[in-house]
Amino acid sequence: MDEVLYGIRQVLKRDYKMNPVKCEASVMNAKILQGKIDLISKTIGQKLCSFLSTGNLISSSGLDLQQATGFTIVAERLNLLRYMSHFQSVHRGQFFTTMKTTTVRKLLPESWGFLCPVHTPDGSPCGLLNHLARESAILAYSPSVKPCVTPHGPLPYVSQVNAALVNKRAYIQDVLVQLGMVPSGVGSGDGQLCLGADYIPV
C-alpha cells in the first residue's frame, strides 16, 4: 500500500512539473484523479494473489523484512490430520534456517502452554516449525463477559470458550497479585502511583 501511495504521489508530482494549472484542475476532478489512481493501484489484487499462491513478496523496497520468499506453504492433503496440522503450524521464518546457532530452535519459557514441545519435524526445520498446543486458542478479540452483538441484537449467552478464558484470566490475575505483583490500573490520574502496604515494590 505504501508503494502504491508513493507511486501516485510521483505521478502527481510529474504532472505538476509539466503543467501546474492542468494538474490542479485534474486533482479537483474526481474522475480524472480516480483514473490516475487506478493506473497505479490496479496491480494490488494481482500482487496479493501472487503472494498467496507462491509465498513470494513482490516489492521494490523489500519493506525492511528479513526474507522475501517462503511466506506461505501449500497445505498437503496426504490425510485429514496432516491437512489440519497446517492450520496449527507456526514457522519462525526462512531467515532462521541458515543460522548456525541453535538458540532460535529452543522452546523458550514464554512459549510453554502456547506451542507444543514435541510436535516439530526432524531435520532442518526442527524447532523452527512448531504447532499450537492442544488447549491454546487464537482469538481476534480480547475475551470478555459482554454479550456478543449481532445485527439482530445481543446474544443472550457467552460462548464456552470465551467464559473459560475469562475464568482462567481472573484466576491467573489473583495468583499473581497474591505473589506480590501490582494489578494494572493502580494509581491516580496524575501519574503518582499509590500502592498498598501489602504490595512488593518492584
From TrEMBL:
EC number annotated for this UniProt entry: 2.7.7.6
Name of the protein this chain belongs to: DNA-directed RNA polymerase
Entry keyword Transcription: yes
Organism: Spumella elongata
Superkingdom of origin: Eukaryota
Family: Belongs to the RNA polymerase beta chain family.
PANTHER family documented for this protein: DNA-DIRECTED RNA POLYMERASE I SUBUNIT 2 (PTHR20856)
Gene3D superfamilies: 3.90.1100.10
Coiled coil: none
